[in-house]
Structures are given as structure tokens and as C-alpha cells.
Design goal:
Elements (H helix, E strand, L loop, with lengths): L21 H10 L10 H13 L22
Amino acid sequence: MSSSSVTPGVVLKVRFVTSNKKAYQDYVDYVDRDNAKKEQGVHEKLFTLYQDYLSNPDKTSSLFTQQSDRLDEEEK
């Protein structure tokens, strides 16, 4: 196989920006805007989806927190 026949499935391009750059502050301002934070219940919904995902035995062996390596039903 020649290298010219290889086609990438995904192209990932990233740029690292340190906190002392204007681009970093622009990003912080962007995610901190009122419009981005308008739906307060979204975080709870996403956390519930995360719990559902991690409670699936095909995905992982258990749910965990900072205090516990394995949550029982009451803790979930």
C-alpha cells in the first residue's frame, strides 16, 4: 500500500493556548456569557445521563465518587 492511497478517517487539529494569552481570556469570556449559562437545569440532566451511562455493566463495573469507589443504590 502506498502512502498516497491512505485516507484519514479523522483529522484532529488542536492549538494549546496558555492562560496569559488573549485567546484564553476570550474563551473564558465566551463560556461565561449569560446565554451559555441560561439553562440552569442542564447540568443535572447531564449528570443523570452520566450516571445512567456508568451504571451500564457493559461500560464499567460501578459508579464512583471522590469519597467512594463503588456506590450502592441509595448513594446513586
